[in-house]
Amino acid sequence: MPSGQASFGGIIAQWLIVTNWHNVTGLNADTGKIEDRKFHPTNVKFSVLQSLSDEGKQAKRVNITSPLYKDDEPLWIEHPSRRQIDVVVIPIEIQSIDRLVTLAINEIQLDEISPVVGMDCFIIGYPKGLRGLHDTPIWKRASIATEPSLNHKRKKMLLVDTATREGMSGSPVVLRHEGLHIPSGIITHESAFGTFESLLGVYSGRIGVDEMGAQLGRVWKAEVILEILSEGLPGVDPVFAS
User: Are 146 and 152 in contact (CB under 8 A)?
Assistant: First the structure.
């Protein structure tokens, strides 16, 4: 999930990639032990969309690979609670790209929505590597399954009801409300009818290993991203992670 501001007037532009701690370390965030897939990531790979003309009628994907380490030190930023919050931020520097179409999530106009149990949300990612035309992501529908005002297992996390699959960890979760939107809780001139969206949080895998089990997924609340940006700590090499 790209975040941050990107300026393409110069040579270098900086992005912030938001993903899971277990994605960059290869370790289980709950146990701190190596995952079944047994891998040690050294790079992060992602793609952006570039327009092929000023009119923007055609576009192509540009694949980018960026290191996770510099001089053997991790480049990602962790939450002050370390792996107890399975979310990290990775500063990325990329060469200037003309006619860039991809926007950082904080460049998109989102709405203020108070989440409630049962409300629709969408996990935007690549389940089992599947993708849409031009590498566009899959929007997997979900619904909020636990009280969003409470912290599941005393962590800044909630559960969603959805049949998610491997490959969606680190995906943004977008809350969607259709109908009358009342930001202040009282009908005013700011109230309106339509479709409204806000960032609910970061998806972090499903509960259990059985694909046909409870079908509940974990979502870290969006506020943990702000906590990482304001109070985050330099990442720790997974060899020394605890």
Answer: yes
Separation in Å, CA 51 to CA 106, 108, 136:
21, 18, 14
Domain containing residue 21: CATH number: 2.40.10.10
Structural tokens at position 122: 């969408």
Query: Does residue 206 lie in a domain region?
Result: yes
Q: Which class for 41: exposed (0-12), middle (13-18), buried (19 or more C-beta within 10 A)?
A: middle
CA atoms within 13 A on the CB side of 73: 5
Beta bridge partners, 173, equal 123, 201
Q: What is the pTM for the complete model shown?
A: 0.83
Beta strands in 86-189 (DSSP E): 88-95, 120-125, 138-144, 157-161, 172-181
Euclidean distance between CA atoms 56 and 219, whole angstroms: 34
Average pLDDT, the chain: 82
Q: Is residue 242 part of a domain?
A: no
Residue 187 — very low, low, confident or very high, per pLDDT cuts 50/70/90? low
- Our count of domains for the chain comes to 1
Q: Which of 131-135, 174-178, 198-202 has the lowest mean pLDDT?
A: 131-135
Is 240 inside a domain boundary? no
Alpha carbon distance 171, 93 (integer Å) = 21
What is the domain range of residue 83? 2-234
Instruction: Point out the least confidently predicted range of 70-79, 119-128, 213-222.
Output: 213-222
Residues 6+ apart with CB under 8 A from 157: 151, 201, 204, 218, 219, 220, 221
